[in-house]
Request: fold
Amino acid sequence: MYELVIKSSFSAAHHLRNYHGKCEKLHGHNYDVEVYVQGNKLDKTGMLIDFTILKSILEKTLSGYDHKYLNELKDFRGKNPTAENIAYLISQKVRKKLPEQIPMDIGIKVCIWESSRTGACYYAV
Ligand SMILES: [Zn+2]
Reply:
């Protein structure tokens, strides 16, 4: 199986509801984002997916979160903006934006890093 990975980042503010600790207060992160794409089939050029296409999809997706207060966004109405939920939502948005010629059985994993030592990943199969 082949696996590609691209990295990007965005900055945003959030706070966690129903949580008692430092993160219940408003604060921000410079989130690092990794998107992994897995699949067995390469196209005619020998690519799983063109990095340029994948990067463009990710940047469009992240622009909706960059320099925003995540709790105020529709995506997080009734859902805490945890690294887990952000990873899940980005995986769904990236999958929806993939070009039609990309096989639907492709695997996507998104990892969100809140700091250099703490992150969460979601595997969208
Ligand atoms: Zn936080």
User: Anything to note?
Assistant: Residues 14, 23, 27, 29, 114 surround zinc ion (CB under 6 Å). The longest strand covers residues 2-14.
